[in-house]
Amino acid sequence: MSQIQNPSAIPSPASLDPYWMPFTSNRRFKQNPQLLVEADGMYYTRADGKRVLDGIAGLWCVNAGHRRREIVEAISCMAHQLDYAPSFQSGHPLAFEFAEQLVSEAPAGFSNVFFSNSGSEAVDTALKIALAYQRARGNASRVRLIGRARAYHGVGFGGLSVSGISSHRKAFGNLPPYTDHLPHTYNRAEMGFSRGQPTWGAHLADDLSNLVALHDASTVAAVIVEPVSGSTGVLVPPVDYLQRLRKICDEHGILLIFDEVITGFGRVGGAFSADFFGVVPDIITSAKGLTNGAVPMGATLVRSHVYDALMQGAPDAIELPHGYTYSGHPLACAAGLAALKIYRDEELFSRAQRMSPYWEDAAHSLKGLPYVVDIRNIGLLAAIELEPIPGQPGKRGYDCHMRCLEKGALIRATGDTMVFSPPLIIEKEEVDTLFSTLTDVLKNM
Ligand SMILES: Cc1ncc(COP(=O)(O)O)c(C=O)c1O
Hints:
CATH superfamily of the largest domain: Type I PLP-dependent aspartate aminotransferase-like (Major domain)
Number of helices: 17
Bound molecules: pyridoxal-5'-phosphate
Pfam families: Aminotran_3
Protein name: Aspartate aminotransferase family protein
Distance between the termini: 45 Å
InterPro entries: Aminotrans_3 (IPR005814), Aminotrans_3_PPA_site (IPR049704), PyrdxlP-dep_Trfase (IPR015424), PyrdxlP-dep_Trfase_major (IPR015421), PyrdxlP-dep_Trfase_small (IPR015422)
CATH topology of the largest domain: Aspartate Aminotransferase, domain 2
Oligomer: single chain
Strand content: 15-25%
Family: Belongs to the class-III pyridoxal-phosphate-dependent aminotransferase family.
Number of strands: 15
Number of domains: 2
Helix content: 25-40%
């Protein structure tokens, strides 16, 4: 196979400079670059040849493990057959097939899929569909979008406006108006070291009633939440919290959006965690595991009442003036269909549940180690929260991440919380390796 350049070649420091890396301390990284040059199954290979056990599925996305032959072949075949096809007033068969397959995996009542290229775009699409839905139903005053503190909904202006990570918001200042936020659901004193869903905190959903009373329901279009907040450190919803949100939305004609960019595709259980939690939202956003991370893609799934409300007006009118040049890209659809086949054939949508007791015990075995102030888990997600170094928030987490990497395990630090989200194909010995690596690091810090 011809290669443009040797991917294992270690670049010179000067040649690293032009690439402005996302969500990275560019100056720190470029002093000590950690480059990954190959991947297979549960492992990455670094530029220095060392193998690294992937404890985070790339970036919460490689759910079936790396470089799956079926996905590689599907992408390759499609690239040889149809490199690109426009999706505006045109189409190609795979996009329709993939949409049909996705709908069949979604909770009952979901009927349609809108494709984009990332989680951020899937979220912005969902927010725009919610606004357009309300307007189409004669509720043009319903323009307010409600997010939640500590939420991450990507980096588009729409997603950022409902996100709740202050450092992401304050750098930009000028965000779309007419938003508000629920409080987050985390309270260490009440729920520290919970296994799975905390039993305290369902009442926090009732804050939605307060926001509705404050703004009036006639101004509120939709509420968006991650069923489990991932990027802010795996905040698991209290028992009955999501059910209460659903009920309040129903009482007031508000759409409920679940951002399942992380929780989808078997991460928590089921194709979507909505099934696992037993709460059916009106709209689901997804990305990441959608193509097993192999080709960028986002998908926004809607229930039939949302789609039907927008299929109105003149029969030849464009019902939703929205879309991307690469919506439903043939290579992404090929990757997605191949990924879905693997998930089904290998029963990966139920594997998180099967592994969960072992995973939970392994995570909670770190209780009592130096600096550990909380441990959270659900499905194949876990977070070990560490006490910050006074005056240096994030430093302990970063140091831990680097030391684990040196020992051959990729574990992500989000602030001072170490998060785990491995490929769903992980075996028990690899679970042990991940948590024992962090254990060794913590004992020697
Ligand atoms: C819940 C959630 N929504 C949206 C996004 C944004 O996805 P992307 O980085 O593909 O734009 C992420 C990314 O981590 C996410 O976790």
